């Protein structure tokens, strides 16, 4: 997998999500995107069997 | 007890009001005066509901006069300003939400405190939308630590810790998604209880991260935490997340102390030698309990990372319309984090939720061998308000998102935690230790906290200000 590029991610995703990010906020937003990506990489590196379901539970009729 | 009734614990105040030695009205009046005299320096209140307090106190006095004994008779309390208070705008630490109309009802937990005889003094400062570990707020001003006004209170329930430490009220309510009760409890030297995830109703409060949000009390004694927690429990049709579990009455259990409980110190991740004061606090508590055993909570760093991803993605999804329309109205310290969270790929989020299932099973196994686990609440005592970074593993990182490194893996598992305040010899500021129990066993965490309080190992004194 290629290395995550926070700059490219923000450039692509901000308009996708309808977000306007002025230049003076860019560094802060990219730093936060990079921090979340590092956290996500740690989670994604952990092998889980396919049967493990997400923890969020929906209870019908509640 | 203290000569000044306001410096007493909630339990002491309620006893005096129930015995009619002092009226709830007088307590409310004195409390309003004290808030007026002290809070300018602390900045813990954003809304003081003086008229409401007097009216509620008069009802308490008439109930007591008619023969009722109320568990929280006349106890002054206040709530983080994400709890609805009828007639008050629920600002949730933001500028944006104060354009909303005043709340039409009280939060469910507020109603329960009122029915138990407690008297509401108002709403408390907090980090914007609860995305904060510092207690700093660009809109309402920073909340200042009563034990040293140049230091932070911790967040995001900043006012909830500070108002207690300043002796302004005897009980506060806060919320804890990743540590927001335990961090201000640690920095302000108070007791705090983050109950089991799903234990207490969250109805009529402003949400942050539905998968991780908890509400709970802070207080200056373990008896107070237990009494308030017992009053707060119960089913609530307004909250679909509430677990269908019978309440556990904790106050009657406190006298049993730590007797017979298997207690261990959390090792590995939680024993980071880079935070010597936090480790000394854990050692201090372990020694007071005669605990030498150590236990490993597996994959805690990954648990913290997963909590981080879920918080970032879920909270930003909630805020998306506001982020699209008016991001400039956010506190600059939260804005960039929310904007980043709005761009989290779905696969990262789902992976974190799947990891949470694995982690729950792993944590359940840990509790086959122990009943209670001890861990630091924060890496260090309260930072100076000017300190914006901290060191983790030899790297300088921003403090605001990282102060909760020891609280996040625990709330991610949904475990109940009593945070207890330690005052180490030679240290000017307090620091908290997490007393962690198995799911649904708040009684065990509070029993151990009570045992520590009984031997003087932990305490929550009122700060001397001015």
How many helix segments of chain B?
Answer: 13
The CATH superfamily of chain B is identified as Amidase signature (AS) domain
Widest sheet of chain B: strand order? 1-3-2-6-8-7-14-15-11-9-10
Distance between the termini of chain B: 23 Å
Beta percentage of chain B is 15-25%
Q: What is the strand tally of chain A?
A: 0
Main sheet makeup of chain B: 11 strands, mixed
Low-confidence stretches of chain B: none
Overall 3D shape of chain B: globular
What structural category arises from helix and sheet content of chain A?
mainly alpha
What separation lies between the terminal Cα atoms of chain A?
42 Å
Mean pLDDT of chain A: 94
Structurally, how many domains make up the residues of chain B? 1
Order of helices and strands of chain B: HHEHEHEEEHEHEEHEHEHHHEEEHEEH
Oligomer: heterodimer
CATH topology of chain B: Amidase signature (AS) enzymes
Mean pLDDT of chain B: 97
The value of Rg of chain A in angstroms is 16 Å
CATH architecture label name of chain B: Alpha-Beta Complex
Helix content of chain A: 40-55%
Task: Give the tags.
heterodimer, A: 62 residues, mainly alpha, extended, B: alpha/beta, Amidase signature (AS) enzymes, two-stranded antiparallel ribbon, 13 helices, globular
Descriptive account of the structure:
The complex is a heterodimer of chains A (62) and B (466). With 62 residues, chain A is mainly alpha-helical. Chain A is 53% helix and 0% strand. Chain A contains 2 helices and no strands. Chain A has helices spanning 6-16, 23-44. In chain A, helix 1 (6-16) crosses helix 2 (23-44). Chain A is extended. The model of chain A has no long low-confidence stretch (mean pLDDT 94). With 466 residues, chain B is of the alpha/beta class. Chain B has 13 helices and 15 strands. Chain B has an 11-stranded mixed beta sheet with strand order 1-3-2-6-8-7-14-15-11-9-10, sandwiched between helices. In chain B, strands 4-5 form a two-stranded antiparallel ribbon. In chain B, helix 8 links the parallel strand 9 and strand 10. In chain B, helix 2 (24-42) runs antiparallel to helix 3 and helix 5 runs parallel beside helix 6. The two termini of chain B are 23 Å apart. The model of chain B has no long low-confidence stretch (mean pLDDT 97). The A-B interface holds A 9-10, 13-14, 16-21, 25, 28-33, 35-40, 42-44, 46, 48, 52-56, 59, 62 and B 211, 240, 299, 301-302, 304-306, 308-309, 312, 320, 323-324, 327, 332, 335-337, 339-345, 347-348, 350-358, 360, 401.
